[in-house]
Amino acid sequence: MERLCQLVKTGFKSLWRKSLVAGLIAVSVSATALQPAHAQRNLPIVRDAEIEALLNDYVVPLLKVAGIRRNRVDVVLVNAKSFNAFVSGTKIFVNLGAIVDSDTPNELIGVLAHEIGHLAGGHQDRLRQQLDRAQTIAVVSSILGAATVIAAASQRNGAGARAGAGIAMGGTELAQRGLFAYQRTEELAADRAAVDYLNATKQSSKGILKTFERFHKDLSLVRDRINPYRLSHPLPRERIAALEILAQQSPYFNKQDASSLQVRHDKARAKILAYTYGPNAAENAFSNAKGSVAHQYGQAISTFLYRNPRNAIPMIDKLIRSSPNNAYYHEIKGEIMLQAQDAKGAVKAFSDAVRIDGARSPTMMVGLGHALVLSGSEEDLRRAVGELEVAISLDPANSNAHRHLAMAYGRLGDTGSADLATAEAQFYAGQYKSAKQFAARAKRAFPKNAPQWLRADDILRFKNPKS
């Protein structure tokens, strides 16, 4: 009996977790140039210096009023077209689709303020406690139900067996509903916190209301078939009702974004559209604003990606002449030059980008390192090693940086360092088996307990995650 109850307990725990995850997935559906980054399973992360800098400018004032240190939070871009953002640990994940679908900076800032509300409120830690509580309810119900089934079966009582199954499934349903009710409360709390942060930073709450209106319209065809008790988020109309009066009372409700910020926001949207939505997406999106900076930017990027990269050079040069100290224009020119197989031109463009960039973006340094590797002279290869080592010190998990560093060391004849850099690249790309193979080779090339030997040993000792 004890063994059977343990099996039932384990089975229902697994079933409960699967059913809960299915519920969470069901409700979440509603809600460089763009270089692919290290793999996080099923989460396609991208890196882009320009868009990361823009989002950094969005979140810094909000984090300050929320009492959160900026150096404790990272904003991560996710290559997904759905309008969604979420927090995990100390990271705020933002889908590219959320940026594209936000017509104004204020709409996206409202979403970021909501996610910061979750961080400041400690909602993740409390959610884990609620998960444990809900799981306990489900497991106890499953054991009671199983005991009833066993007793009924021994007496050949079909009705009793069905009742026992009902107890087990009913407990799971009760646990799920309780958890979702708790999450809905936390979502409303994060909404309220977002309005407070926006007021404290003298920004409008109109954008977050517009986002909820968008969600409300998206649900128009299925609204009548939704069970509100099986949602982890309140219905959009409920969220609007809870915030509308409060938001409209703010003296900043009708305040508009600065025109310079709107231009940066539109350029980020144009870049994402060009890279991820197809050859004409950026130009079509800004067809009513032909000649605007965003339209020109999107057209230049689309031309180099999908047409003739050499035809994109005069387009980006025109933008550089209009704003010679824009590091991101020089960065894109470097990408264009690489595509046009002009490594020397790419080195010049990326060098200008790194020199101008005040944020010391490791993504730009990686671009320069890549161009220097392709340029091929021994002097350029040694410079590439220097640039890439600095980039890695700022962003250790950048698999592209390690990959280009491996190429540089390989061409310089330093096979041990090349193997170690390859192991690092594979490790941060989630290719652990291959990483261990290269680490084993690298380990043999260095003296025991040397820094390189120790790092190779760390990779070899790493235990692959089960899931």
Would you mind describing this structure in some detail?
The protein is mainly α. The protein is built from 20 helices and 5 strands. A 5-stranded mixed beta sheet has the order 1-2-3-5-4. The protein is globular and about 70 Å long. The protein starts with a helix and ends in a 6-residue tail after the last helix. About 40% of the residues are buried. Mean pLDDT is about 80; it is low at about 1-30, about 35-40, about 135-155 and about 160-170.
> What does the oligomeric state look like here?
single chain
Low-confidence stretches: 1-32, 36-41, 136-154, 159-171
Query: What share of the residues lie within helices?
Result: over 70%
Portion in beta strands: under 5%
Helix and strand pattern = HEEHEEEHHHHHHHHHHHHHHHHHH
- Rg over CA atoms: 27 Å
Distance between the termini: 32 Å
Largest sheet: 5 strands, mixed
Report mean pLDDT, rounded to a whole number: 80
Shape: globular
Helix and strand topology:
Elements: H1 2-28, E1 35-36, E2 45-47, H2 49-66, E3 74-78, E4 85-88, E5 91-95, H3 96-101, H4 105-120, H5 123-154, H6 158-200, H7 206-218, H8 236-248, H9 259-276, H10 281-285, H11 293-306, H12 309-322, H13 327-339, H14 343-356, H15 362-375, H16 378-394, H17 399-412, H18 415-428, H19 432-443, H20 451-461
Parallel strand pairs: 3-5
Antiparallel strand pairs: 1-2, 2-3, 4-5
